[in-house]
Amino acid sequence: MTSPRSSAADITARAAALDAADPLRGLRERFLTPDEVVAYLDGNSLGRPLRETPRRVSDFVRDAWGGRLIRGWDEQWMDAPTRVGDRLAEVALGAAAGQTFIGDSTSVLLYKLIRAAIAARPGRREIVVDRDNFPTDRFLVEGIAAECGLDIRWVPSAADAGVRPQDLAPLLGPDTAVVVLSHVAYRSGFLADAAAITAQVHDAGGLMLWDLCHSVGVVSTELDRWSVDLAVGCTYKYLNGGPGSPAFGYVRADLQEELRQPLQGWMGAADPFDMAESYRPAPGIRRFLTGTPSILAMQPMLGMIELIAQAGIPAVRAKSVTLTEFALDLVDEQLVPSGVRLASPRDADRRGSHVTVDHPAFRAVTQRLWDRGVIPDFRPPDGLRIGLSPLSTSFAEVAAGIGAVATALRELG
User: Do 16 and 82 reside in the same domain of the chain?
Assistant: First the structure.
């Protein structure tokens, strides 16, 4: 832990040493950062664009779209959702080909897969979800339960932690249809034991759906090895796909013929251009598509997937741990004396790539920080999230950002 007597110069020197020793340091230059941004600490909400992204999108508009026009569908676009899904699965999900697709928004994919899971477990009347899950997950479960006449079993969890196997055990039973949890909790950064929890749910006869929004691309994920049934995740956080970039879905291979997705659209049909009178699902993972995929919106994530492949998830995770450990040291030294409370796990094995700290003044602090080019993320009621995207974040940024938080707190008294 950083010495309580460390000066600003000492902290700057330590950050510089960590940056110099970072084996991934050269990759930071691959990202766009505005000159006025001193520290970007919100990569867990919206990743920075790659420097190549403007060119990639421009080339697509000019050549693939502008040059090939409608021919692009036959030549390359029809299989883009599954082709890109397979590459993402290989690089970041620990999943074999044929189980992952790029599709709708996270919310729509959650709806489709939760409904499909419920239909595949007839007679079971309960959906299990934790009370501190991301609002979309909870809201969707509430709506689906009302729509289908099911009951919700709410898992209690502390706001500064997450769901553990022992928290879930009393709520599982013969009525459990599907369990919906986040692999990394959006508020605290708690990293769930996905393998153990998935096994628990299977022992009860239910299906397990993991929300990977805050873990994909930054935490080691082994969907096949863990025997995960279903997963959904966004691509605009650690996959740097840009605002509103399409989400991905995962359906384990042996479940694909069993599950029937509820939004039967033409792109999930066996032959989309047959214009058939009735729906016949495509074989395999493609049946989980609905409408026309957003080919243009997929372009920014392609470069990031390859950058993660170049770095390797183990190296990304190792830097994530070092970044968050450094952040915790600075929080203890610079923020705790001002009444700040850590609201994330200290154990790196139970922590994703963001750290949350609580203080009643953080709403006002956040606005001050943004005005000064330091960009963390505020989450009610009084949490400041420090989101550290390993490939684009330097240790110097972390030091500057947390130092700015300390300064703003002193100014506000």
Answer: no
Q: From residue 138, give the alpha-carbon distance in Å to each of 128, 130, 211, 217.
A: 10, 8, 12, 24
User: What DSSP element (H or E) covers 128?
Assistant: strand 126-130
d(CA 232, CA 226): 15
Predicted TM-score (pTM) of the model is 0.96
Per DSSP bridges, beta strands 176-182 and 207-211 are parallel
**Same domain membership, residue 296 and residue 391:** no
Based on the number of CB atoms within 10 Å of its own CB, is 320 exposed (0-12), middle (13-18) or buried (19 or more)? buried
Q: Can you state the angle between helices 8-21 and 395-412, rounded to 10 degrees?
A: 150
Q: Within a domain: residue 55?
A: no
Establish if 302 belongs to a structural domain. yes
Contact 113, 251 (CB under 8 A): yes
pLDDT in single tens digits along all 413 residues of the chain: 444 557 889 999 999 999 999 999 999 999 998 889 999 999 999 999 999 999 999 999 999 999 999 999 999 999 999 999 999 999 999 999 999 999 999 999 999 999 999 999 999 999 999 999 999 999 999 999 999 999 999 999 887 889 999 999 999 999 999 999 999 999 999 999 999 999 999 999 999 999 999 999 999 999 999 999 999 999 999 999 999 999 999 999 999 999 999 999 999 999 999 999 999 999 999 999 999 999 999 999 999 999 999 999 999 999 999 999 999 999 999 999 999 999 999 999 999 999 999 999 999 999 999 999 999 999 999 999 999 999 999 999 999 999 999 999 999 97
* Domain containing residue 383: 8-49+312-412
φ, ψ for residue 56, nearest 5 deg: -60, -45
Q: Are residues 148 and 238 in the same domain?
A: yes
Do residue 391 and residue 292 come from a single domain?
Answer: no
Contact 301, 84 (CB under 8 A): yes
CATH number at residue 389: 3.90.1150.10
- Same domain? For 166 and 155 the reply is yes
Q: Are residues 263 and 340 in the same domain?
A: no
Taking phi over 0 as left and psi of -120 to 50 as alpha, with beta for the rest, 165 belongs to alpha
Domain count within the chain: 2
Residues noted as catalytic: 134, 211, 236-237, 385
